[in-house]
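[step 3/7] fold_predict: job queued, chain A
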Amino acid sequence: MAVSRRLVSATRAISNRGEVPRFIGEVPSPKAPNGRLPFDSIPALECMIYLEWRPEVTLIEFEPEWFDFPATGHLPAIRCLPDFRATQETGEFKMIEAKANRVKLSQKRVSQLEIIREHFARRGILYEVVYRSELKKSGFIDTIALLRRFGRLSFSPDVIRQALGRLNSGRSGDLETRVEQARRARVSLSLLHHLLYHQRLPLIYKKVLHPEIRHWRG
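[step 4/7] structure written:
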């Protein structure tokens, strides 16, 4: 949800005031420390949705801490505040920066991101820049956002096993194809979407059109 009030992350107050108002808000997430995650841009929101979808990620923190890197070797000193810390099942974590589009970044900013990556690498910390333009390809993040609410549903192991038995016999396809398979197999669409979100069935991603979004949510 978008809000016009100030939000607070672990490190700063988030505001949408300025020459160009920013899209900010907070969303519920089962992988957030307190059940909700703030965001300060659309790229950050969709990056969070992507990280939440990844099964190996167990904890997501928004702007958890500042990093001050001193000059080291050929690397200049730099200070940064990554958008996310994503903790994995192994206990390792990765620092994540969310950006809109690599080709629209200035060369100076691209160089800064590479310097930050090298500083983190020297500390043995993984660092990744997630670009919204990549997530948008083939309708990937739009589909994940569409299925996301069904991921929180729960079904008994027997119900899931029976549904997988009925649906795995069909060929893989896009969302529309999978829906038709579920209807023929008499599997509820809520259960189908749950299985697709949790990657229990293969899914071919394609661009989701707005009329389709209204149809699936109707």
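[step 5/7] annotate
The chain has two domains: 7-135, 137-217.
The chain has a mean pLDDT of 90.
exit 0
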